Amino acid sequence: IKWHSLTPADLHNLSAQLIETEVDTHFRSYLINISWSLSMDASIKELTATKICVMSKGIREHFECIRCNYTEKFQSQTMFGNRRWQFHYIGFPVEPEMFYSISAYNLPPANIYEDSPSKSIMLTSPGNLLVSI
């Protein structure tokens, strides 16, 4: 465990939606499109990555995390036009009739005994996801 003199603020926003993809098997499949935006404060200069974890519950349970690394240090708190930095990740597969708990937090993480900021949301998939084309 490493002590960080400064750590980034919490994500400003976290959202998710199902998106449809087509595969060669003539069935539609779905993925989760996870979107997040960053807080507009000076701590953005400490941000190195965002970690996203998805836990699914239903007929079977699954837990998976990914780390989205930022390739360069942020030089500004906002994008052009004074807009928040916004990112998307598409890649978690969706199964019918499942509950998805999605959580995300910025890295480096808060130090021990400090508030560990994170955002969490829930998403439910309908039962009729696999449809023949």
From TrEMBL:
It is a single-pass type I membrane protein. This is IL17RA/B N-terminal domain-containing protein. Keywords: Cell membrane, Membrane, Signal. The lineage of its organism: Eukaryota, Metazoa, Chordata, Craniata, Vertebrata. It comes from the Eukaryota. The keyword Kinase does not apply. It comes from Chelonoidis abingdonii (Abingdon island giant tortoise). It is found in: Cell membrane. It holds the Pfam family IL17R_fnIII_D1. Residues 2-127 form the IL17RA/B N-terminal domain. GO terms for cellular component: plasma membrane. GO terms for molecular function: interleukin-17 receptor activity. Gene3D superfamilies: Interleukin-17 receptor A/B, fibronectin-III-like domain 1. The keyword Signal applies.
